[in-house]
Structure prediction request, 477 residues.
Amino acid sequence: MRDPDDVLANVRRGLLPAHIYSDAEIFRAEKERLFSRAWTFLAHETEVPQAGDYVVRRVLDNSFIVSRDQSGRIHAMFNMCLHRGMQVCRAEQGNASHFRCPYHGWSYRNDGRLAGLPFHQEAYGGDAGFVRTGQRLLPAPRLATYNGLIFISMDPDAPSLEDFLGDFKFYLDFYTNQSASGAEVLGPQRWRIKANWKIGAENFAGDMYHTPQTHTSVVEIGLFREPKAEKRKDGTTYWAGKGGGTTYKLPPGSFEERLEYVGYPSEMVARMKEQWSQEQQDVIGRDGFMISAASVFPNLSLVHNWPRVADSEDVLPFISLRQWQPISENETEVLSWFVVDKEAPEEFKKLSYKAYLMCFGSSGMFEQDDVENWVSLTKTAGGSMARRVLLNGRMGILHDGTPVTPPLTADQWAGPGVSHVGYGEYNQRHLLDEWADHLEMEPPAVAPTAIGVPADTGESCGETGDVCDEAPAEGQS
Prediction:
């Protein structure tokens, strides 16, 4: 990365070198330094509800099998055969007790343990040439869950997921913990856009400023109760831990009245009140703010909205979760899931899914508006002139660093972190500060694992070697 010190110093000042959104060297640094260390989302537990269920997901170029074994435990295993490196599982999802490599027929249980290899005695001389016991598909270095969300880190020395998320867990509960049963997901839908992955993550993290311009037509056709998109300025942006988001300002009312205003039936409201802490309830009932879009560093986003879904004044909320999966410096695969509480009424689930598809599915109205901007930005950032431009990302602060609007006090905002009313790019700066911090780090050290080498040779993996043993996943019983 050319002049990395200058690039990162300018990012921390809120002056963004335009080429960071379309630069191959920077993308290589992101792969080596960021995605090799940060916790990234892979799947949701309800995608693998039964023993034997699996899905295949990626972290950049690394393919993982996410499976539930016969005992109910979840695993994330590198999708590469231990013999000659063939991709073991080529289906995107399914149910299987074993995976069989199509190249030479090595087979693995759904917990990753090597189950069999053809002609072990004839080809290897049995264990004298290849120690079969204890071999398994390489597990993700770290695996943990929160509210059913499955994350992995490529860094074995990464902090715990709980520590990584920090206070943002408070806000994740609004999306994924509306009852004791938790959430379920449907999807993902997948599509690719010719845009840099950071743009979508920043947009969902805190960009209320684009709504009155980019999404004016969506409001003007009457999809929402609020007659003007500029009402977004009455909401807040908040940042806590490794994530942040935006809110809408709600009309006066109690906790129950405000949740019913955005379309939740009374039975769901009652369960939310039982599930959420008093402080979580106060964000809505006392302070009058309803969570909207948010992003968790580096590339997980959520959205909560409540459009009209029928020819009436009634609205219905939906929740969507999405991942911005980098393909290159100028292309991103979007994975988008519909999220809903497991205990929600079936009619609510049906209409909420319809609302999700209408707004943020692959052909959703908001999606089409946004992608046009993001593609244009990425393409323009790839030109030589873009290297002369420092984009202004300082909205919300004066020249001396003083915020245009002071942070809300504890009496005004019950949640953790820092929250401001009105337009500002506080959250985008926080996200890019995290990005800069990771790009300054050295890549984590990686030691290769020898496969099937007898323990008495001094190599790291054998019949009694513990390098091949998968550690218990955090957040699982």
